[in-house]
Specification:
Chain A: This is Cytochrome c. The complex is a heterodimer. By secondary structure, chain A is mainly alpha-helical. Chain A is built from twelve helices and no strands. Chain A starts with 8 loop residues before the first helix and ends with a helix. Chain B is an all-alpha fold. The chains are: A mainly alpha, B mainly alpha.
Chain lengths: 219, 173
Amino acid sequence: MVQIFRPGADTIARIVLFAIPTVPVLAVGFAYSLWHSPYATAQDVTREQPVPFSHEHHVGGLGIDCRYCHTSVEKAAFAGLPPTQTCMSCHSQIWTNAPMLAPVRASLAEDRPIEWQRVHNLPGYVYFNHSVHVAKGVGCTTCHGPVQTMKLIRQAAPLTMGWCLDCHRNPAPSLRPHEAVFDVDWQPPENQAEVGARLAKERHIASPQRLSECSICHR
Amino acid sequence: MMRLVAIPLLLSLGACDDPSMHRQNRYETYGKARLFPDDAEARTPPAGTVSQSALARETALADPPPVDAALLERGRQRYEAICTPCHGYTGHGDGMIVQRGFPPPPSFHEDRLRAAPATYFVDVITKGYGVMYAYAARVEPRDRWAIAAYIRALQLSQGAHVADVPGLAEKLP
């Protein structure tokens, strides 16, 4: 009688049997981790900008306050991107011939805004407002990370819904006194749990149940 | 029967462009806008336009708010955020940008500026002076008065005498 299966067929059959339950599980796991990876969330990705503006130099080195440029952060949904006049407030006098700043000078001369590449891009169905976060005491670096160390700005947080909810369900660890909101070197004190809970109460921050309702962010 | 199912299905294909709704058909703040010749969502008002808030701003600028602790505190915040890069935390005109080569502004503690009325500081913030750009777009009218009040507090602090503070002399070593 002729043999139908070769001697290795047994091994192949075992591998196939093993793969039938494991491959779908691994595939789902892989897709899930890819979905949360920087590849999908754009976390830590730096983008080429028309001018290589360094927050490390301007914030870390010179100590310029966030609000010098992002003027609407306390009163609007959008933090505000400075007009070219803001850059030229200093650069009309210093580094006036730097080749790096040529696009800034051209922008002022031609009255044409600089086209920055967006770094923090929320989906169209998310409503986010900077002013309420600042007013309630969430500091800039809580979400934007240590900008004073970034040569080019990058998205420090994953900006996923789960990441937003982490704080909406438990805001106390991220709440600062008002004078510390724009302090990039702020570190939580030892008793932050206690201080945060007190600040949440004083500022009438809604309950975690209310803050994690769909309509808080999806309007 | 077949048509009843097929027609809505065909129609729903039109929504397949971006089923996640991640990118929606609307303009983002300062985003690109193909509708306009300069591709910018942010529009420049046509020449001669007067904004609805213009009258309120003019009034706030002409009418100084009463000076109280809250106004001084607001002035300190604005001063430290906007003015310190050049004028320095104490107003001597030795801020970080000046240390890096910007022409130094006058100290707030020189006689001419000690004698200057508060409107002078508000005017300079509004219109700029010398190499200082106008800050009207960056500092609200009420905040300009708050900053002027805080400059007065700085002037007081840098020219204070021990005798001005009751009970201080006894506490000093």
